[in-house]
Amino acid sequence: MEFNFENELKDKIALVTGGSKGAGKAIADRLLKAGATVIITARNKPEEENENTHFIAADLSKPEGTQKVVDEILQKFGRLDILINNLCGSETPGGGFAVLSDEDWESSFQTNLLAPVRLDRGFLPGMISQGNGVIIHIASIQAKLPLYDSTLLYAAAKAALVNYSKSLSNEVAPKGVRVLTVSPGWIMTIASARMMERIAESSGGSVEQAASGVMDALGGIPFGRAAWPQEVAELVGFLVSPRAAYLTGTEYVIDGGTIPTL
């Protein structure tokens, strides 16, 4: 079997949620380079618009937001071949379990679990009907390494997403649809870089010292740095390609060795 890496996603229609910045933007750019027609969603338009991508403004934490995206894509494009559920949100207030309200829990699960579930439900019938499709759920190593004072809600939602993704893959693999999970560790996005600058400024130390402190909080990163968004995007680009045609139901961790167990 031969593959054309430069144009391997030609004629494929892909959606990347949270695709306006960070890893989502890198994934969208990677799929574009492979020849796909790429749609991105976010609440607000990207600061740097790409005329080659199609943008849909939507709040995916609400059912009407996910339905808007499903309706617009199916009306305009007629189908979806690749769904990258990249949107995430982690806004846990400090203080542990006692400070978390029902509203905090519900908000996190709406964004990190139910938004992907609703989009899957909206696009899977078409994928099953055409006999092919790929769904990627972007989870997190926090599903296995939760930080009780900063990622308790996010970690619980991502753990549920990993479990759901595996179950879904078992159901739809016989129908031609591949479902996979990608769980990144710390990613050096623009937002992460700004956070390091703020930590350095408040502590009186350097950006390098701030980054080292974050890595220590994670238990250390053997590779010695955070991942670049493009590195996560390259893994996703491979997984949605014909080269990965036999891969489904698996979680791929990209964390520089952060998780200390097998």
From TrEMBL:
InterPro entries: NAD(P)-bd_dom_sf, Sc_DH/Rdtase_CS, SDR_fam. The keyword tRNA processing does not apply. The gene is fabG_4. GO terms for molecular function: 3-oxoacyl-[acyl-carrier-protein] reductase (NADPH) activity. It comes from Dyadobacter helix. The lineage of its organism: Bacteria, Pseudomonadati, Bacteroidota, Cytophagia, Cytophagales. The keyword Oxidoreductase applies. Keywords: Oxidoreductase. Belongs to the short-chain dehydrogenases/reductases (SDR) family. It comes from the Bacteria. Its EC number is 1.1.1.100. It holds the Pfam family adh_short. This is 3-oxoacyl-[acyl-carrier-protein] reductase FabG.
